[in-house]
Amino acid sequence: MRFCHGGPQVATVDEVTKAIRQVGYRFSDEAELQEGISFALTLAGLKHEREAVLTKRDRIDFLLPGGIGIEVKIDGSISALTRQLFRYAELPEVASLVVVVGKNTLGNLPHEILSKPVHVVRAVRAFA
User: What is the reported pTM?
Assistant: First the structure.
């Protein structure tokens, strides 16, 4: 596994969510939001791998040392997102999940999936 950004620190979930919340984002699609999240994590000195391959089928948006997985969703259905998170939670590489959402309806997730904690962060849009 290669970690391509950030310093040597192994982060806690609280540090990750704090880093994400401290930045305002300008985005029109998931790729732009992911770019902003990568910037926020780097700014906080947190190592992370983008588009981490977990299986042939599954690629999580970010994976941090210690098994913190970050999935970014700005649209789509809650059921599709939940199925995706269940697949990630089945894997030993993922110890906890942080889901960054672009709309409130995607934030109605369980606090735990397969005994792995799930934390939801609402992406705050920056104003010009």
Answer: 0.90
